[in-house]
Amino acid sequence: MQITAAGLSKRFHRDWIFRDLTHTFEPGTATAILGPNGSGKSTLLNTLSGQLLATEGTLTYTYQGQLVAVEEVPQLLAYCAPYLELIEELTLTELLQFHTRFKPLRAGLTNEGLIERMYLEKSRHKLVRDFSSGMKQRLKLGLALYAAAPLLLLDEPTTNLDRTGVEWYREHVRATALGRLVLISSNVAEEYDFCSTHLDVTSFGVKPTR
Ligand SMILES: Nc1ncnc2c1ncn2[C@@H]1O[C@H](COP(=O)(O)OP(=O)(O)OP(=O)(O)O)[C@@H](O)[C@H]1O
After folding, report:
1. What mean pLDDT value characterizes the chain?
2. Would you say the CB of residue 40 lies under 6 angstroms from ligand 1?
3. Where is the signal peptide, in residue numbers (predicted)?
């Protein structure tokens, strides 16, 4: 998946959140979107993925050499963010059965295989409502990282994770980033230190890290 932004700007009411981003997010690359609280990282992530309408500028999406209409982007993306909710009335097994019907897992991975990768075997039949906040975050991340989607969006991915959870995230994000376009909104270096590009939402100074 490739996203090309030209003069991209977003305003809420009278406030410009970001202005004039011109940048191509290349397939197979990972970009960290950085900036202090309230600077517009989540807004940029949601605008780039077509979930929020830009105030000015254009976005062009391509996948495997074909233009993609903005309406088709949701089918191609996997998203993990603190403000996205899980269906808490389902057990883990039920939730995976439901979720993977419209967001399939990558080839060769079964629901049971994903449960094992998330180390949630003992919670197969537990209601998601009764998961700890760290278990919920691991589940949200597992669903996004292991979805068969060429665009991966992660907003504050280690929210609620303990040390073991952070290490789990670091291992699995690297294992699943290959070949995808990955965008990570973050303030925590260990969430994005593998990213090849850093994009500061307050300045749009785009700099490669290596
Ligand atoms: N729907 C909305 N209507 C009006 N203002 C909004 C809306 N969504 C976000 N904002 C404002 O846009 C600004 C940027 O918010 P955003 O959530 O994108 O920042 P952020 O950098 O992701 O913050 P954080 O690091 O705290 O998650 C904030 O001032 C916020 O209040």
Report:
1. 95
2. yes
3. none
